[in-house]
Every structure is written in C-alpha cells, then in structure tokens.
Design brief:
This protein has 6 helices and 4 strands. It is of the alpha+beta class. The strands form 2 sheets. Strands 1-2 form a two-stranded antiparallel sheet. Strands 3-4 form a two-stranded antiparallel ribbon. Helix 5 packs antiparallel against helix 6. The longest helix is centred in the last third of the chain and has 16 residues. The C terminus is likely disordered.
C-alpha cells in the first residue's frame, strides 16, 4: 500500500511491521498515573536515599550531580517506575516477585526507582519518556524529544546485574508497555494536570479535566497512604 494521504476504503486490513511480522491490536487497559510527589514519609526517605546512593546521576540524560558529595540533590529526584497510587494493581499482578532485594515495603524498593532530573521525572511519570529493556535499554521519547534523549541507552549504573539493588527489568517492561498503550492509540491519552500553585482551586481544576473521578481517586489515595514508623522501613 503506497504511503500517501488518500482515505482508506472500508474493510479489514492486516498491519505488518517493516520486518513482515503482523502487528496485533490490543484492548489492554492503559493505567493512568499522577505526578509523583515526595510526601516525606520514612518509606519515601529510605527509597530516595537508596536511589541516590546507587545512581548518583540522571540515568536518562546522563547528567551527573556534581554536588552529590555535599548531599545537595537540588534538581534531581528519585522516581518510582511503578506508581505508588496503584498499590492494588501491584498486589493483583504480584509484582513483589520482581523485587529480589529483600524489602519490607517492595513498592518502595530501590529496584522500583530511577534517579532523574526533575523535568525528566515529570515526563517519565506521564509516560512521555520510557525505557525498553528488551531493546538494549533504549530510551524512547514519544512526544517531541525536548531533552534529546530519544535513542540514548539507560545508564548502566542503575542496571548492573552484579549489584543486588539493580533496577527490575520487569518494572521497566511494564512502564514501556504503558507508554506504548498511552501514546500510540489514536490521539493518545490525556495528561493529568499536576501544577497546582498555592491558592489554586485544585479540586475544581481536576473535576473540569479528563477522567475527573479517576484523577481525584488517585490524588486522594496518594495523600492517604498509611505512614509507617521508621523502624518498619527497609534500608539500602
């Protein structure tokens, strides 16, 4: 079929990749998420320290933190690959099995984290940027590549198999699949608003936005997660 702007005739079509393999459609549900926010809980503190200690840099862009030695991490954030607000799905899919480093709270394991710059973190949370562990850990930017990371390779520091704290490939694989589902279907999935300055009508803006009920539920769950005592947390 020639590549042009002609309207296709009504009918059934088999779609194949450039290699000739048939591309199959999927009705798998896309898992929306909100922008991660550090709540300052003991679990999150332990997670953040572990990710910083392992990575020392943004593993997507390669930007190093020159002030790591003085414990200044301004502009760098520990990102969860699988979102905390989807804890029920984590349990349903038994994702604990992919956390090989013993942890009391597996969702906050260093293996579910990457150190990213703040701006890349936002793109990662919205599935605009993702990593395919089945293609040499190649990074894909699905929306414009404003950070010039498309085609780069995920930094080896976070995925060294000899390090027990290495990132879990299965979680990267899950994130990449969600990125494909969210960006390659039709016009793509909407991105939830996350910038709510002090004094803004957060609830009003959420209720006027897309998938308002789901967005509100995720925001509430993110805020109401149980805060454990420091003694309950795993350490890296």
């Amino acid at each position: 079929m020639p590549l042009n702007n002609d309207r296709l005739e009504t009918g059934d079509y088999n779609i194949s990749s450039s290699s000739g393999a048939v591309v199959r459609s999927s009705d798998e549900r896309f898992i929306r998420r909100i922008q991660s926010r550090d709540r300052g809980t003991p679990r999150q503190d332990s997670f953040r320290r572990a990710v910083r200690a392992r990575d020392q840099k943004c593993v997507i862009t390669g930007i190093e933190n020159s002030e790591a030695e003085v414990d200044n991490w301004e502009g760098f954030e520990a990102a969860h690959i699988f979102p905390l607000e989807r804890e029920a799905l984590w349990k349903q899919c038994n994702f604990n099995q992919f956390i090989t480093l013993p942890a009391r709270h597996p969702m906050n394991s260093v293996q579910n984290g990457l150190l990213l710059t703040s701006s890349v973190h936002q793109k990662f949370d919205s599935y605009a940027i993702s990593v395919n562990p089945d293609d040499g850990y190649k990074i894909t930017d699905f929306r414009g590549d404003v950070f010039s990371v498309d085609g780069r390779i995920l930094d080896p520091v976070c995925r060294d198999p000899s390090n027990l704290a290495h990132v879990a490939d299965e979680l990267l694989r899950w994130h990449f699949r969600q990125a494909v589902l969210g960006n390659m279907r039709g016009a793509g999935e909407p991105v939830f608003e996350h910038d709510f300055p002090p004094g803004s009508d957060m609830m009003g803006e959420i209720m006027e936005g897309p998938f308002a009920a789901e967005h509100m539920e995720l925001e509430l769950f993110s805020r109401l997660r149980t805060v454990p005592s420091e003694s309950e947390d795993s350490v890296y």
